Amino acid sequence: MVIRSALFNILFYLSLILLLICAIPCFVLPRGAILWFARLWARISSALLRFVVGTRIEIRGGENIPEGGFIVAGKHQSLWETFALFLVFRDPVFVFKRQLGQIPFFGWYMLKLGMIAIDRKRGKSALNQISDAAGPLIAEGRQLMIFPEGTRKAVGAPPDYKYGVVHLYNKLDCPVVPVSHISGLYWPRRGFMRNPGTLVLQILPPIEPGLDPKVFAERLQTVIEDTSNALLVEAVARDHPPLTDLARARLDSLNGTASAAAQ
């Protein structure tokens, strides 16, 4: 697995560099040309995971994706979901730090794709900036990708959902589609190794607009975390991946709760 992980990492970044070069003509083409390359990146990366590492991708709940524009709120555990979501949703919009837009080619392509660049230091005004920019994009039928915890979290880490997703839910008045996965078991947020198995991304039924903010926040966190916990138990039983102390503690807690309920 060390050799496979090394080979995957080399091929992953080489393919990304090659695609960045091949996509240069897209700067003078419509945005759809860049979107095509983003999807190609997602397909190539997924193929490398499957054939080099032995990690298969399984998408569940595709029938829960509504028509038109909406918010997608999901777990963020690794680099995997930043490209995998292009395989699932028609026209994703990501929010990224303004400084990343200055990175040659990669940052420029993100701007060309119509992603939303913000200054995180601006606090609440940054949230208003996101909602102001996202409103017209959602009206066009695009999907706003939000990671409610704000940053990558290790598998088993206590949930830490921020207010931002609640603000956007109220402001944009559109459905929110929860997404769960445990990508951190197969592609740890820090570390060299990639682990084989079946990486499941579960798309959950949309939460319709109009709920009380507290009710929405509780429902979103509950459905995402409960599903992630179930996926963790399933993945460990099926794939036996290496576990961090945090992941093992979460698994022991879930198994203990299940045993107590059975008694």
Write the layout of secondary structure elements.
Elements: H1 2-22, H2 31-53, E1 55-60, E2 70-74, H3 80-88, E3 92-97, H4 106-112, E4 116-118, H5 124-139, E5 143-146, H6 164-172, E6 176-181, E7 197-203, H7 213-239, H8 245-262
Parallel strand pairs: 1-7, 2-5, 2-6, 3-4, 3-5
Antiparallel strand pairs: 6-7
Helix pairs in contact: 1-2, 2-3, 5-6, 6-7
Using brief descriptors, characterize the structure shown:
seven-stranded mixed beta sheet; 263 residues; alpha/beta
Overview of the structural elements:
By secondary structure, the chain is an alpha/beta fold. The protein has one domain. 49% of the residues lie in helices and 14% in strands. The protein contains eight helices and seven strands; from the N terminus they run ααββαβαβαβαββαα. It has helices at 2-22, 31-53, 80-88, 106-112, 124-139, 164-172, 213-239, 245-262, and strands at residues 55-60, 70-74, 92-97, 116-118, 143-146, 176-181, 197-203. The chain has a seven-stranded mixed sheet with strand order 1-7-6-2-5-3-4, with helices on both faces. Helix 4 links the parallel strand 3 and strand 4. Helix 2 packs across helix 3. The chain is globular and about 45 Å long. The chain starts with a helix and ends with a helix. Mean pLDDT is 91; it is low at 259-263.
